[in-house]
Design brief:
OB fold (Dihydrolipoamide Acetyltransferase, E2P); 144 residues; 5-stranded antiparallel beta sheet; alpha+beta
């Protein structure tokens, strides 16, 4: 059950990445940004948008792999929402490595565990899978 939940969460994450890319691609604006912070969960950046306002997206930049503090790079952001920004030239395809890896790792661990649990249940039930009678066979067995 947990493996299915993890798989569903990673699917939702991938859909969210695709949606963010669609929003940016609908009205993209390019400018130069500077990396302020790099952590395991986000990369903080700052750039000046097309209206002259300094922007620091609260969620950082999308697809930041390889960026370093102080580095300048080209960023693409949504004209309607300057806080939604990604590294220029990158897309959800770049971000899919993590969710796909998590799903593969989850099922590599869960698959053998599920197989073991099912085989253990079969052994506990006398070595053969338990079959339930249905329909006319069940009625005959009750009558006889």
């Amino acid at each position: 059950m947990l493996a299915w939940i993890v798989t569903g969460m990673m699917l939702l994450l991938a859909i969210g990445m695709w949606r963010n890319d669609m929003v940016i691609d609908a009205a993209p604006v390019r400018t130069t940004a500077t990396v302020l912070t790099v952590s395991a969960l986000s990369t903080g950046i700052e750039f000046v948008d097309d209206t002259g306002v300094s922007q620091r997206p609260p969620d950082g930049v999308l697809y930041p792999g390889g960026l370093r503090v102080g580095q300048e790079f080209v960023v693409e952001y949504a004209a309607d929402d300057p806080t939604l920004a990604r590294v220029a030239g990158r897309s959800a395809v770049n971000g899919l490595v993590m969710p796909v890896g998590v799903v593969v790792a989850t099922w590599v661990l869960a698959g053998p565990l599920l197989w073991w649990l099912r085989s253990r249940d079969a052994r506990t039930a006398g070595g053969t899978p338990v079959r339930r009678r249905r329909g006319p066979l069940r009625r005959r067995a009750a009558a006889g």
